[in-house]
UniProtKB/TrEMBL annotation:
Catalytic activity: heme b + (2E,6E)-farnesyl diphosphate + H2O = Fe(II)-heme o + diphosphate
Location within or outside the cell: Cell membrane
Signal peptide: none
UniProtKB keywords: Cell membrane, Heme biosynthesis, Membrane, Transferase, Transmembrane, Transmembrane helix
Pathway entry: Porphyrin-containing compound metabolism; heme O biosynthesis; heme O from protoheme: step 1/1
UniProt-listed GO biological process terms: heme O biosynthetic process
EC number: 2.5.1.141
Single GO term (MF): protoheme IX farnesyltransferase activity
Protein name, per record: Protoheme IX farnesyltransferase
């Protein structure tokens, strides 16, 4: 048994990023620090469910993954794992993750996580991905939920700050993923995936990236103006957003699309740095 194949089936880099945003959702609540063990057990449950969702995505996409350079080395596409083993492993993750979330957090958290699971692994993977150029925009909702999930796991209630963080991730998703779609345009076109650059053109996609980047900036300012964050958050996130907007504007005149992977890679760092800044600001405000 190749353990790395099972790990790669879960898209570990994506699960780690999702888990970090869920963890920050927990850390922003003072109740986390009096219930650290149960909170972390809930986080583990979430991570297992996220991994099972990613695995199910690969199960459904196993044939198309064989034809794309970016995905042909995935465990199922390459033949490292059998379909039966993948299904058994995915089911085990789903069951254990659901048990941990329900036992250590609450029903609300499990329901929100289950919604994200169904939305990504079934609605997005089976339907949205293949039928609309807005696939990433709509499908991005599932990846935007972790801060809210982390918050509700600790508090068993929905609050304004985690909802704002959900909106930040939702608006970040299109300018994060579309550069990758442009970079792999021929592969998506060959597989018949109607990504935005294929359906509406590269130029239109780049213009919409700027719109989303500007909306992202405005949304990320909202927690500060609602008095939920402080000046460290304001300065840090403003710097991140202004550079992101600069990259998107520069991309508009990049006819050879040389900036594609630079923007994609920065957007991943953006998300990590954004949530780090949000938590550092929380600590500063707590100890003022």
């Amino acid at each position: 048994m190749n353990i790395s194949s099972y790990i790669n089936l879960c898209k570990p880099k994506i699960v780690i990023l999702l888990s970090i945003t869920a963890l920050v959702g927990m850390l922003l609540s003072v109740d986390f620090y009096s219930n650290i063990f149960t909170s972390l057990a809930s986080l583990l449950g979430f991570a297992l469910l996220a991994g099972s969702s990613a695995a199910l995505n690969q199960i459904f996409d196993r044939e198309s993954d064989k034809n794309m350079e970016r995905t042909k080395k995935r465990p199922l596409a390459s033949g490292e794992l059998s379909l039966v083993n993948a299904l058994v492993f995915t089911s085990a993750l789903l069951f254990l993750g659901s048990f941990l979330l329900l036992y250590y957090s609450n029903l609300m958290t499990l329901l929100i996580t289950t919604f994200g699971f169904v939305f990504y692994s079934l609605i997005y993977t089976i339907y949205l991905k293949w039928t609309t150029p807005q696939n990433i925009v709509i499908g991005g909702l599932s990846g935007a939920l972790p801060p809210l999930i982390g918050w509700t796991a600790v508090n068993n209630e929905i609050s304004l700050l985690p909802l704002m963080l959900v909106l930040v991730i939702f608006l970040w998703t299109p300018p994060h993923f579309w550069p990758l779609a442009i970079d792999r345009l021929d592969e998506y076109k060959k597989e018949g995936v109607p990504m935005m650059p294929i359906a509406k053109g590269v130029s239109r996609t780049k213009k919409e990236m700027i719109v989303y980047a500007v909306l992202l900036f405005g949304t990320s300012l909202a927690p500060f103006f609602y008095g939920l964050t402080g000046y460290f958050y304001l300065i840090s996130t403003s710097a991140l957003n202004l550079y992101f907007i600069y990259l998107c504007i520069s991309y508009l005149s990049d006819r050879k699309n040389k900036l594609s992977m630079k923007i994609f890679n920065f957007s991943v760092k953006y998300m990590f740095l954004f949530f780090m800044a949000t938590y550092i600001d929380f600590l500063i405000r707590i100890y003022e």
